[in-house]
Amino acid sequence: MLLGIWALAPLGAAIGTGALAPLGAAIGTVPTGGKFLQAGPLREFLMMWLAFPMTTIIMTTYSGSLGGVGLATLFLIVVSIAGGLRQRSNRRLQPAARSGG
Fold first, then answer.
1. What proportion of the chain, given as a percentage, has pLDDT over 70?
2. Is the pLDDT reported for residue 17 higher than 50?
3. Is the separation of the CB atoms in 48 and 22 below 8 Å?
4. In a domain, 66, yes or no
5. Mean pLDDT value across the chain
6. Around Cβ 55, how many Cβ atoms within 10 Å?
7. Range of the domain at 49
8. Is residue 26 part of a domain?
9. Is it the case that residue 43 has pLDDT exceeding 70?
10. What is the pTM of this model?
């Protein structure tokens, strides 16, 4: 059972990456004059951040980091699928090993 939770951990990390990417993009634009995190537009940024699946694509395209977020998300999804498949194959092998020994 515990292994099942660990197989879902990369998928949770991918969702977290998508949720935190707009904040990371906004912080990344501050040194170049980005005004997302100033007092005036902060409320609008927080409202926009609530719609994170859509704003992740918008904000990371604006900051130029869309490729990195896409690769990280793809990698984490592949790791999650591979962990689930490995766990599934381990479940199939365990009863056979018990009956043979």
1. 84
2. yes
3. yes
4. yes
5. 75
6. 22
7. 2-17+35-93
8. no
9. yes
10. 0.56
